[in-house]
Amino acid sequence: MSFFIADAMAEPGAVAAQQGNPMTFWGMMIVMVAIFYFMIIRPQSKRNKEHKALMGALSKGDEVVLSGGMMGKVTKVVDEYVVVDVANNVEISFQKAAVTAVLPKGTLKSI
Fold first, then answer.
1. pLDDT value of position 22
2. Which SS3 state, helix, strand or coil, does residue 93 take?
């Protein structure tokens, strides 16, 4: 049967020599965690902080873009909700989280 499969002639110290240095493994793990932090976690937390600041700064008269693409002028801010005037005498209530951007004043008049 040894015609097709070579006999394994393992030495007792060969297994230990094949294993790598454990410091290399932990070094690579630290590098991977650092990459995930700087590429994924940090930018996402920065965007969340900016969006919370945007929601906190909403006030009456701001022109906003909502998450569905609808644009309008804020007429009332109540706790977690904003009332947005999207057309003449058409006011819709939205959660503050639905506001994605605040537009410069006068943007809606030019559209």
1. 85
2. strand
Q: In a 3-state reduction of DSSP, which class is residue 100?
A: strand
Could you report the per-residue pLDDT of 57-75, keeping only the tens digit for each?
A: 999 999 999 999 999 999 9
On whether the CB atoms of residues 78 and 84 are closer than 8 A, the answer is: no
Question: How confident is the model over 1-5, as a mean pLDDT?
Answer: 63
DSSP assignment of 52-92 equals HHHHHT--TT-EEEETTS-EEEEEEEETTEEEEEEETTEEE
Beta carbons of 109 and 73 less than 8 angstroms apart: no
Structure tokens at 24: 């290399």
Look-up of token digits 């920065």: 46
Buried b / exposed e over 21-43, threshold 16 CB at 10 Å, is eeeeeeeeeeeeeeeeeeeeeee
